[in-house]
Amino acid sequence: MATILDIRNLGKTYRSGGKELAVLTDINFSIEEGAAVSIVGPSGSGKTTLLGLCAGLDRASSGSVELNNIRLDDLSEDQRAQVRNRYVGFIFQNFQLLPTLTALENVMVPLELRGEKNIKNQALDLLDKVGLAHRHHHYPAQLSGGEQQRVSLARAFSNRPKILFADEPTGNLDAETSDKVEKLLFDLNQDAGTTLVLVTHNLDLAAKTQRIIRIKGGHIASDELVNSDQLAGNSYQ
Ligand SMILES: Nc1ncnc2c1ncn2[C@@H]1O[C@H](COP(=O)(O)OP(=O)(O)OP(=O)(O)O)[C@@H](O)[C@H]1O
Ligand SMILES: [Mg+2]
């Protein structure tokens, strides 16, 4: 199997109030194409920061990120945006829908960027998959948190990404909707071969992936293959 993501000696430091804050230190791992991997860890441990660096949304302070054999550190902002458009889907913890666009238009954006045809029908199909076709004309402010999350999911899917990063994809959903979203994620993983990298506090969800990387205080505390018997029923805080 080919490697789709290779992270070497990755570090991220923020400067605030004249002080340096090391958020991630010496992170190393790689992920094979088609795998489903979870990243877990306490709040503030650096999971969202790590996901952003892996996806080329942000730049590392040290080390390297290689996505689909492309070294992201060597690229300009525009070049990284191109790599994201071509290969990456991202579901944000805070959704990041464009507030002035309807649900439908939000899902159409990546399709438009790729210069695809028949984008309205494709976007409607995707909204239908997340159970929101009937709300397509609504703006994000008119949707509940869980509904916005599902629009964000449809938008990420519309890119037909080679690798999908999802930051707490079921964090705001009721049990039934959460099951639907999980199924969509794992179907995409199995049917389209999309690599999945999930950040989650829900260990039941994490146990459905093949591998769990645990982050603590900006370091990798453990990186293990899943033994679902052992993990079921627990939840990280
Ligand atoms: N732009 C920034 N400037 C300064 N510090 C930041 C910035 N972004 C994140 N941090 C800090 O980095 C640390 C890690 O944040 P991050 O959002 O990656 O955590 P997380 O593991 O995703 O937490 P949660 O589970 O609550 O989402 C936190 O202490 C946060 O305050
Ligand atoms: Mg986070």
TrEMBL record:
Residues 5-235 form the ABC transporter domain. The keyword Ion transport does not apply. GO terms for molecular function: ATP binding; ATP hydrolysis activity; transmembrane transporter activity. Gene3D superfamilies: P-loop containing nucleotide triphosphate hydrolases. SUPFAM superfamilies: P-loop containing nucleoside triphosphate hydrolases. CDD domains: ABC_MJ0796_LolCDE_FtsE (cd03255). GO terms for cellular component: membrane protein complex; plasma membrane. SMART domains: AAA (SM00382). Keywords: ATP-binding, Nucleotide-binding, Transport. InterPro entries: AAA+_ATPase, ABC_transporter-like_ATP-bd, ABC_transporter-like_CS, ABC_transpr_LolD-like, MacB-like_ATP-bd, P-loop_NTPase. Belongs to the ABC transporter superfamily. Macrolide exporter (TC 3.A.1.122) family. This is ABC transporter ATP-binding protein. It comes from Adhaeribacter aerolatus.
